[in-house]
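With this grant's support, we have settled on a layout for protein records. An illustrative entry appears below exactly as we store it:
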Amino acid sequence: MLIRLNHAQPYVLSLFRFVIGLLFAIHGAAKLFGVFGGNQAETGAWPGWYAAVIQLVCGTLVALGLGTRAAAFLASGSMAYAYFVVHQPEALLPIENGGEPSALFCWAFLLFVFTGPGAVALDRFFGSRSTAAGTGAASRRDRAPAVSI
């Protein structure tokens, strides 16, 4: 049973990456364009409008698995900023200050920085083209490690 779970790990990671990226992108689109029931941020307003741009762009990149680690790093940092600057001054705990989404997105994106995109991602597609002619070091480096339990 554990062997099957271990084999599914990179695919489930890809699915998790897609869902988190899509939710983040939708959150940004709601703020930028006032869709999905969101309130449109004033163009150029700090920090809301810039956060929405980061959410839309990084969320889309993460969902597609394109530049996953860099996009996830930026997204994680933006959510850490949102938590500590916007939410944390209101109260200490996320349940008290409304910062649960920021905290969860921050940690989910930080996970992608370290795990990579999973098995199904555009990073893998473009990486396989470039490493076919090269040494293949990048594909070995980005491959998910085997987990033994």
About this structure: The helical segments are 2-33, 48-64, 68-87, 94-97, 100-115, 122-133, 137-142. The chain is about 70% helix and 0% strand. Residues 136-141 have pLDDT under 50 and may be disordered. The CA atoms of residues 54 and 147 lie 33 Å apart.
